[in-house]
Structure formats: structure tokens, C-alpha cells
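#struct-queue
[09:14] JT: dropping the first one here, sequence first, then the C-alpha cells:
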Amino acid sequence: MVKDALTRSYRCSKAFACRPPISKIQLNRNPVTQPSNEKRKLTVERLASPAIAHSLERSQIAKYHTKGGHGFTAEDANHLADVFHGKRAEIVGMNNEVNGAERIVNGLRIQSKYYQTAAKTVASAFASDSGLYRYAQLVLEVPKDQYDACVELMRKRIAAGKVPGFENPADAEKLIHKGTVTYKQAKNIARAGNIDSLVFDAKSQAVTSSYVLAISFTITFAHDFWHSRRIGDAAKSAANRSFLASGTALVTGVISAQVLRSRAAAVGVASVRRGVKNVTRSSIGRSAVQRLATGSLGRAVYGAAAVNHVSKLLRTNAVAATVATVATAGPDFYKAAFDRSISWKQFTKNVSVNGFGIAAGSAGWLGGSAIGAAVGSALPVVGTAAGGIAGGLLGAFGIGTAGSATAKAVADKAVDDDSQAMLRLMQDEVQSLAFEYMLSEPEIETLAKRVAATVTPDWLRQVYKEVNGLSDDETTRRCLRNALRPEFETLAKARPRVTLPTESELSSFLSDITNAANDKQPESSSNDC
């Protein structure tokens, strides 16, 4: 009995001396500040930048800054309104067909004309030499505020025999289609920095953001469900992250669209075009450019048209990626500049990792769309357009994830996260407190679970904020100790009450020790002899 008791006592003291149980306390080592979009959230948000660039380049925004740019904005604005009203609308004027339709809405072929006055708007639809209506089988879309005047002018043209196929002036309303925006609104939409252009961009990017919302929700829900097997938790997490990704996409899209209206953006295209032309001098480069253009537009494009489109696409991707990086850095900037819950070193690291991941996602979209379009064109069931979109999504998701992981690994070797310094100090304080409270191994197991639940990135940021950074280790240690002490107090209070043995129990215990020692004495003496 005495031997067993001494053995247990020895093992217990040895355990505290060597500290093996303390190592079982696994602190939550999530960084104090992952980039504002945490790992899984970043994955879905990387889809936003290339998706925005793709949607912008399928519009006519590159022409908005030109002299007649308001005509292109009128087409896009009227097209967007028709889409919002559930109509089957398509812009077809980019094929530059002479006297052809610019838009088709529910089968109605439309030619848009937006001039300063109703007289100029109607006159632009008639040939200057013969005076005849130039757009057979097409209706004329005019500014909203000029509609009545344009109808009256068209009646006069019909009465004068200038519209082949029409003799009754009352049919003028069949030829004039009322636009959804006025001439002034179309002019404003073509320029950056006004209410009309901002509202238009918000509406158009809301469509793209809805795609990002759906894709983000699907990816995040699947990922979280596979890990937790709980539908409710997965749905809640997916909803939160997808709404954040969609909101980021909306802000990024609006700002990018405003930037692309500037002349500086046009100059950027010219610079990029020179580089793309140099690439097309080789057969491999020429093929790559053609595949990129085909994947983006969803139809085969060659020669100068491919060069022009890829130049604009690269420019737009660069703008969208830059804006997305700045937008996602906003929360971290607030934490560093105002909340002071992270360091500027951590902020710089987060922005660098985010920026590299977003750039990698854009590159993945471009490469994936080219490959997807090539595969889709070979499969009649899929098609070039669908193949390009699917390939772009997979490319942005895969390459963006790999790029961000690589950047994070490299950055971790160069710069420690704020959390690493915090956790090193915390480990020391946990061990110190464990010895002070003489925790048993079961208590250490319980403590490990409680610490893992308590020490989250938000908790560490709050501690960092309270100690105003990590400049003073002693202050940090004191704050960590005060924050963790309640956990130890809880464990100590849960222990059973200790009652000292009575005098008779102690006397009996000592007698047992003496008797045990006397029983072993003869054996020891005989062995010595």
C-alpha cells in the first residue's frame, strides 16, 4: 500500500516537473487576422473580380468615352431595362452590320438613335442622298423625352412617301419605339461621377453580383456541409459569406465601371494592345490570343478583332483586380487605422496575400475560359459560350486558391502574423497558470477544450487592441493572464472539497507505515548476510 502511494505521488510530481500534460493544451492557432476574407470566404470572393471584368467587356463601356458614346450607353441602358422587365433582349449591333439591328427584344428588331433634338434623331434614320428610311423591317428607338415629337415627325415622313412600305401616317407609332432613358440621361451615363451613371452601374452590376451570390452560396454550402454535416449551420455560413461576396462584387463592379469611362483607361488599352500585338507575332501567341477572345465572347474571333478584345479584357481585369484588392482591404484598414486591433505590418501582409490571390483568380479565369471554350466548341451539347464560362469559373476557383495559398506560405516565412506572437506568449501564461492552480490531467483536458473555444481571432484581436499592440510583452502577458484566469477559477471551484484526516485516521496511517517498514527489515538483514 505504501509503495503504491509513493509510486503515485512520484508519478504525479514527475508529471508536473516535466510538464507533459500541459502540451495537450492545443490553442486555436487561427491567425489574429487572416486577410479580411478568411480562407474559404476568399475562395468564393476571388470569383468576383474576373466575373465583373467578363461582364463589363461584354458591354460597350469601352466606347462610352468617345464622341458618340451616349449612343452606346443608350443601347446598354435600354437593354438592361428590358432584361429587368423579363424580356428576351439581346444586343447584336456589335457585329457592325450596315443598316442592321442593334438590339432584338422579344423578336422585335430595333435601331437606336439618340441625338440632341427630335428632328436630328429622326433625320439620322433617313439616307442623305435619297431621303428614304434606311432601316427596313426595323423600328427606331428614340430618347424617352423625344418620343411624341419623333412620332409626329415620322408621320410627316410617311405622308411624304419617304418610308417604303408605309403609306398611312397613323402607322408612325409602329416605327417609333420609346426608349427608357432620356437624351440627357444617356449623356450622363457615358460620363463618370454623376447620379445617372452610378445608378446605371449599380443596376448592371447587380446582375453580375447575383451570379456571384448564387455561385458563392453553392460552393460555401457544399464545403461547410461536407465538413460539419449540419444543413442549418452550412446554410447560415453560406448565406453570410455569399452576401458579403456579392456586396464586394457590387462595389467593385461600380467603381471599376466608373474608372473604365476615363480617358486614362483608353490609354491603358493602347499600351496593352502593343504588348498583345507582340505576342501574336508567334503562332503560339496568336493561337492563345484567339482562344482568350473566343472564351470571353463565346464565339470565334480572329485577327485584329481578337487583339482588340483581349487588350480591353486584360485592361479591364487589371482595373477590376486592383479595385477588388482595395475594396477587400477596407475592413483591415479600419482595424489598423481606427480600431487598432491589428498592426500595419499585418495589414500590409493581408493586402499582399489578398491581391495576389485576386490576380491569380483573374489569370485563372482567362486561362480557364480559353480552355473551356475550346472544349465546349468540340462538344455540341455544351457549346463555346457555356464552355468558356464553366472553364472561367473553374480556373478562377482553382488557380485563385492555389495562388493565395502560395502567397500566404511565402508571406508567413517573411513576416509572422500578429497572432503568432500573441499565441507564443499565451502558451507560456497557460502553462504558468496551470502550475499555479495545480491542474490534474483531466482538468487540463477540460481546459484545452475551453481555451480552444475561447481563443478565436476576434478574441485575440480584442486582446491586441487592449494592450495597444505587442510593443510591451509584460503588459501583453498580464492582459492574457487576466483574460484566461476565469477559466482556471472555474476549474478550481469545481473540485471536491478537501477534508484533512482526523487524528485517529492519521495515527492509523502512520502505524501502517511503521508495520510495513518492520515487515521488510528481516528480509533486508538476511540478504546482507
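[09:21] JT: and here's the second one, same format:
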Amino acid sequence: MNMKKAIAVFCATAMVVTGSSIPKTTWAENTTLPFDLKAPTNAALNWLEGGDSPTTMECVYCMDDSMCKWLKKWGDEATKEEALAELNALGFTDITFSAQIDWAIDDPVNGWHYTKYWDTEGQDEDYNYRISDWDALGILIYGETTNSELILRSVGDIDDNSNEIWFGNDYNPGIKSQLKDGQYDIIPLEEGGHTITLFKQGETPKRTVYARVRWSIRLYDMEGNISYEHSDWSKPAAYGAAGEKWEPYTKATLKAPVISNLKMTDETSNYFPVISFTLTVPDDLKKGATEVEARGGSISLITEARADGDEWVEIQGDWTLSSGDMSYSLQMLAENMESKGKSLSKDTKIEVRAYYYCDQYTDSGEWIEPFNSDYSNILTINGDTPTPPAPSTPEVKEGMTEDEVLAVISEIESEEDPSGTKFGYLYAQEKKSAKKAITLTWTKPENASHFIVYGAKCGTSKFVPLAENLTDTTFTQKKLKKGKYYKFIVAAYDQDSKLLGASKVVHVATKGNKKAGNYKAIKTSVENGAVTLSLQGESSIALDAKGVPEVKKSKVKEHRIIQYESSDEAVAVANADGTITAKGTGTCTVLVYGQNGIYQKITVTVTQ
């Protein structure tokens, strides 16, 4: 797999048009598409109250079911060929999707900033961009009912005459030229100078910001020509003086999920079977989910399964609202059965149900205690459950070339760690998580020349390289989806580009959903980080390790249990349950680490 191609696949950024001229826009009514290109059905807007920047707002918008289902099919490796065949039948070889967000202040009729350049993704005939920093084009979208983006971000120091974001340049208009007197307030910067804000904390808004959204589709035909299709604009969202008030959900008003078409798929995750069912998201829930997310909350789908009438077990898989097929691994169910001396087989009767978990805020920013909706209807599979095969863990080895490592890592479709990786080699971990970005950090071993960071969405998504030839020991992946889990592997290479060692998989959630949290610390039963064992006396100790969430009342969705690693197993070993057992006299270190790389170091001394 070509490394640069893999990086492009993960980032999914809009490609630059090549050729002698920018193609003219072809409007949607002249082209047949494999889905209905309708305007976003709902949009909502919220000010972040100084978070990110004084002006930053979040715009959340909904996707029509037809487009949502097809985009989900296009983005899933298991169904990509089917979607491509549908596209080819219409005379196209490729397609890209993005959103465009226009804005206005106080005037939702004539105050918009759309120009003809938006129809060609902001470029003129000579490929010069003709848009300002506040004109939001080329926004990555997913096959999910709700998508979101931060808009109207910082303009910087307006006292700095070289500030092109504010003053513009020969090609790009500055924000100053797009604003009228009275549409903003000037405030001081801590480091000196001034910037602007649209609202002031603690004050009743005196102006209204509006946003409207449309889809932008780029199509490539059989001759290599490019055309653009655009949906109509959504109904404007408003925040401020004329903004609509939102009544938060209650258990009485949030209806139970409606699910159907339960089936066993041909896919596996961690070598366990994967099931799917269809989720129907009604229009009133689409609007409600948009309003909830705009205020920093979320509505998630939680799914449970049981085998042969036994207890219900939460299973892992899709949990963001998305009309169409939702996929889930049966790993947690199978492991629950194994703990009781049973096994998942082709004769197992499997039942599935789901509920919504609602975590929301009021218009004034007050957090509301989360609650669950009622359960959905129960779906059943009677038998025909494939028996999980014996696992075969991919392995990376010291001395592998970059291409050899990529060949192994890119085939991992689960949450597992590749064999041959060690946590204590790089100590790769989360440094910082934001709504749209994750920063990793790690240590630099002796002889390490450079690093490569690989990543993917958590679940069955395959790893791809995100950055290569890194010499720093930190890396930030941006343009991520809020409230989502992502997984990463860091690999260290020598000056000949041969592998020195690789990290365990690091699972980190972006902020924005209390059902998707991270650990800030690991606690154990060992005080002061040290323990003494004896070969003749007390030869073992149970660590009783637990992860401490970064935010109180948040939930860390378990992608990997807390794990243990001994620096010298001839002195002491730690099993999967966290019990340290003495093996020989001496001193060693046991690392106790969570899925996001947060760890506790325990010094173990073993006497005779």
C-alpha cells in the first residue's frame, strides 16, 4: 500500500483540481446520482462562549436518509465495491463529498457571503482562492445523521497590519471587509493587541448570527472530467437575539429506538462475528439530535445482546445516530458466555435490543443529568451464528522495513494489539484531546531516527499512516469528529528505516460526548508505587487496577481492558487479571496502563 496514498485516504481532504481550467458547475437537476441530493434537513448553531476563540461557533446539521445510507456504504470497505459499481453505472469513476457553511449577521435575507467561487470550491479560473477564513468550504462529512463543524474562528490580532485573516490580501477578502459596524465588539488580547467577539459572556445577546448549509459533490467521469453538484441551502439556523429556544429532552419525550432487519454479516471483529440491524431515525429525532449536539450534548445508541435467554450484555459497535445498517461485534457477548463455561456456536439464539443515552445541556449551558430512553423492540436470530475461529494475531518484528510494517498494520481490522509491540518501549499516550483533535506524545529511544504514526477510527477501520519521518515526540491529528474514539500506533525507526519497536494501540476519544471519555489516571491497591514480595512468604499481590475518567460522570467506553507489562519476567510476572507473582529474586518494574496510554509504574522487589 502506497504510504502517501494511505495518508490521503485517512485525511479525506478535498483534492485540488488539475487541468487547464476549472470546470463549470453542473447543477443537480441535470445529473443522476445514486442518492437523493437534498438540502440538509436541520441546522443548529451555538456559541462556544470563548472556547477555541472569542468568535468560534459550532454548526450542526442533518443529512437526508438516502444520502446518509449511500455515503455510509461508500465509506465502508465491505460495501465500497457495490457503491462504486452503482457510480460506474452512472458514468462516474469517483466522487467526493463535503459541506459548505454560509453565514450572516442580523440579516438572514441579504447578509450572506456566498459568491460564484463557492461553486468551484473557492477557486477562480487561475486556481487562486477567493474566499475568506470565515467562508467554510470543503468540510469533511460522514455517513451519519448529524455532522458538525466549528466556524467563524479566531481573526487574530486586529492591530497587526500584516494580519491577512483580518485585512485580507490581493485574492482573499479579509473578515474586516465582510463585517459592518455594530456587528462585532473589540476586546483586548492577554498577550497584547486586540481581537473581536460577536457575543459577551454573561450579557444578553444584542445581535443574531445565522448559518445555512449545503452539500457539495465533486464527480469524476470516465474521461477524467470534473463536475460539481450542490444541494439547496438548509433553512437558516440562528443564535443570539433572534435564536430559537430549545426545550431539552426528558425520558417522556425521547422515544425508544426503532430497529429492524437483524442479520449476521460476513464480517468479523477480533475474530468474533459481527451482526447488523437497521435503525430508523424519525424526522423529529433528527431535529432534536441536531439541537442537542449544537449545545455540546449527544444522543447515542446503546445496544445489548443476550444468548439463549441469559443476561443482557452491552456490545460494541456503531453508536452515533445513522439511518441504515448499524454493525456490532459479538465479542463482549462471547466473552460473557465463556466466563460461565459456555460458548458461542451456530445453534445459539441471539436477541438484540437498544436504547438511547441522552446527555445534554440547557440553552444557558447547564448540564442535565443523563438518562436512558425506553428499550426498543427485541430482534432475534435463531441459530446460524458462526463459531469464532482461533485468533491469529498480526506480528511486527524488529528490523522490518517501513513497507513491511505497513503491510502488517494496515490489515488489522480490530481493537487488538499487534504481536511484538511493547508499551514500555515508547510509552505512547494521549497528551491532549479536544473536540476536533487528538495530540499524542511518546519517549525517544536510543538510536531512533524518526517515527511514523498510524491511525484509524476505533472499530473495524484499518490503520493507515498519518505522518511519516517525524523527529518530534508529539503529533496532533486534526479535523476529527467530536465525541468519537480513534486508535493509533507509533513506530520508531533507525536511520536505515528499519523498525526498532512499536507502541501498543492507543485508544483516545475526542471531547464532546460524555459516553466517550478518557482516563486521566490509573489507580491500584499498591501505595507509593512500590511493593515487596517474597519467594518463601507472600509471593503475589492483586493490583485491583481501575481507570479514573478525566471528567466526572463521564463514561470511558472500553476498547481494551487495563493491561500489565513486566520489565523482567524472571523476577515477577503480571497476569491479565492484574495479579503480580514473584518468580525470582531481584527488582523489576510493572507498568499498569489504560487504553489511552495513561499508566502507573510499580517497582517490584522480590526477596528470598
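[09:30] RK: nice, looked through the second one.
[09:31] RK: The two ends are 53 Å apart (CA to CA).
[09:31] JT: good to know. The chain is about 10% helix and 35% strand.
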